[in-house]
Task: inverse folding
């Protein structure tokens, strides 16, 4: 009986904390965007985006984050707008980074697709969804699958991503790098299939959560990624990873 209460309390804690992270992410997006703008200006680098668009993005994020603090109806409406806002950020990020580093462009876009999926599923009610909101959850699950496939492609095609992942594994496994990468990518694609098809989502959420935890670990090494992106860009990637991890955790808890 105590163990049952412990498990119930743990699930409640994971569910509550994960929803807090997802609903408060717009505030972080606004803050990190402002800090990134300051970092770029301090280095004298161009950001290729009009200042008014950046300030409008910051303002919209603050408004949407505030709306998510109200009742369920306003939260659902704000999450739908946030999904559209994250889609805009993903599109703008791809346009900026595709000029210099296509793989980094895909990495950033996939992270914001993950955040977008979080808001679509939040709007759809995750596993406890009504028929009227089911289309948002279905679109959210499909977007989760796209995010997982993107990470599999990055790991398989980008030596920088692959080298960082392999650095977390024991040195004895280095001789089996190709096999490990193929298995890792295959698991990502299998999880993506579960989400995109809507079948066996419980197992898919559990497996994706375990796989994405490793992704969060290697992205936390901001000194390694400093050779490729600005500091605050990497912080934004880490935050998006945590938001996406929270989505997977909520999805798993609600289906377990």
Result:
């Amino acid at each position: 009986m105590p163990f049952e209460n412990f498990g119930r309390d743990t699930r409640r804690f994971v569910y509550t904390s994960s929803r807090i992270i997802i609903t408060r992410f717009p505030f972080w997006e606004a803050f990190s965007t402002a800090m990134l703008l300051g970092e770029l200006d301090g280095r004298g680098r161009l950001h290729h985006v009009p200042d008014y668009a950046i300030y409008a993005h910051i303002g919209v994020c603050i408004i949407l984050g505030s709306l998510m603090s109200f009742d369920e109806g306003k939260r659902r409406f704000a999450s739908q707008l946030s999904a559209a806002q994250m889609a805009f950020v993903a599109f703008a990020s791809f346009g900026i980074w595709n000029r210099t580093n296509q793989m980094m462009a895909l990495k950033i876009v996939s992270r914001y697709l993950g955040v977008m999926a979080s808001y679509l599923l939040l709007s759809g009610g995750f596993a406890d969804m009504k028929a009227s909101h089911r289309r948002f959850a279905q679109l959210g699950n499909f977007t989760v699958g796209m995010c997982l496939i993107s990470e599999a492609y990055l790991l398989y095609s980008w030596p920088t991503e692959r080298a960082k992942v392999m650095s977390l594994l024991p040195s004895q496994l280095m001789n089996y790098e190709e096999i490990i990468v193929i298995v890792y990518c295959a698991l990502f694609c299998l999880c993506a299939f579960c989400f995109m098809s809507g079948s066996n989502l419980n197992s898919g959420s559990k497996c994706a959560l375990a796989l994405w935890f490793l992704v969060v670990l290697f992205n936390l090494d901001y000194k390694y990624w400093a050779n490729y992106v600005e500091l605050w860009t990497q912080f934004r990637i880490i935050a998006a990873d945590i938001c996406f991890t929270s989505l997977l955790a909520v999805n798993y808890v609600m289906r377990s």
